[in-house]
Amino acid sequence: MTSPQTSIHPYSPAQLGSQIVIGWSGRHPEGGPDVAFLLTYSLGDGQDGPVAGQAAMRTALDRAGLQVGGGVVDTAEKSGVQVKLLVQSGQAVLTLPHFTAQYPAPAEWLAAARDRGQVYGMFATRPWPEAVPGRPVSEDQLRAFAANPDIVATSAHCMMPVRALG
């Protein structure tokens, strides 16, 4: 008799390359308060190149309890998901087992996160080498990447509750 096994793929954090977080807020299609979004992506500059980086990111997300290509996971309701979001003093701190990132959030993003009580997280496995820190990303560039059906289908998606200290 056999039993299902989880496939364990080794990866090195160096394969992930530079991990970047970018945020925005916008209207919810069904109405109500605006939604705060965080998009995490790699520049594709990992040790073994962008293809190895994609595989490493997929493995890292799987180990964090997020399913690439699956539905939106509510991290407050699903046990075993290792994704935490802390919003404090104008900063959003996103923590996963493979990285921690700070996002200096604008006032409208903070208001959307507070009003909804949660943030939509999208973790792209495909790199976005054009979106380098220090260079502005236009709304059109962001929309072209984050709404690209191939990017959406190869990403992990979740709703993260907003937590604060104190």
Helix content: 10-25%
Spatial strand sequence of the major β-sheet: 1-2-7-8-3
The total of beta strands comes to 8
Identify the overall geometry. globular
* Low-confidence runs of at least 5 consecutive residues: 1-7
Report the mean per-residue pLDDT as an integer: 90
> Rounded to an integer, what's the Rg over CA atoms?
16 Å
User: Count of helical segments?
Assistant: 5
Broad structural category? alpha/beta
Order of helices and strands: HEEHEEEEHEHHE
Largest sheet: 5 strands, mixed
Could you give the distance between the termini?
51 Å
* Percent of residues in beta strands: 25-35%
Number of domains: 1
Question: What does this 3D model show about the protein?
Answer:
- The chain has 166 residues and is an alpha/beta fold.
- It has one domain.
- Helices cover 25% and strands 30% of the residues.
- It is built from 5 helices and 8 strands, in the order αββαββββαβααβ.
- The chain has helices at 13-16, 50-63, 107-116, 139-146, 149-153, and strands at residues 19-26, 35-42, 72-74, 84-88, 91-96, 99-104, 118-124, 155-161.
- The strands form 2 sheets. A 5-stranded mixed β-sheet has the order 1-2-7-8-3.
- Residues 1-7 have low confidence and may be disordered.
